[in-house]
Amino acid sequence: MDDIDRIFLAMTEYFSGDARRIQHFVKVHAFARLLGREEGLNAETQFILEAAALVHDIGIKKAEAIYGSASGALQEKEGPAEAEKLLQKLGLPSGVVERVCYLVGHHHTYANRDGADYRILVEADFLVNLHDDGESPAAVRAALERVFSTPGGKALCRTMFGLKD
Predict the structure, then answer these.
(1) The domain that contains 82 carries what CATH number?
(2) Average pLDDT in the chain
């Protein structure tokens, strides 16, 4: 079993009993994996992207327990420490843990997305959320114009939602 599989199983255990949240991170991971490969990320960046996609919403449980809310800002506030505990327990290198925690702490911040891993994580999360939230074609188009920057992410968004140029 590789490290991505171990993170996948650890997150499934973390969200045990919450099939909706498990389904969410599985879908985000699938899109992130695909888009990272399409963008030709190097192996380390691809690994960081996939790890971050699996743990990106780890702050939800703590935010709900403390604040009664799972807002994006609270996920970003509470997520990095939770991700750090889980990833360190799995024995991942400190540099990987640091970058993943950074991404977890910023995945709802859409300005100044430094790095392909950051841009792709946000796009993958948007692809899932736009569908799961039943957003209108106008909202999808606005997200496409405002959030998506990678060629693969833009193309996948257009295809998924049947948008024409």
Answers:
(1) 1.10.3210.10
(2) 96
C-alpha dihedral, 98 to 144 to 158 to 165, nearest 10°: -140
Q: What letter would DSSP give residue 86? A: H
**Long-range Cβ pairs for the range 12-16 (8 Å, 24+):** 14/58, 14/61, 14/86, 15/61
DSSP alpha helix (H) spans, the chain: 3-14, 19-38, 43-55, 59-67, 72-89, 94-104, 116-132, 137-146, 151-161
Total count of domains within the chain: 1
Tokens matching residue 115: 């790095």
Cα–Cα distance measured from residue 74 to residue 69, given in angstroms and rounded to the nearest whole number? 7
Domain that holds residue 37: 3-161
Q: pLDDT tens-digit profile of 93-127? A: 999 999 999 999 999 888 888 999 999 999 999 99
From CA 25, how far away is CA 40, in angstroms rounded?
22
Note the pLDDT of residue 49.
98
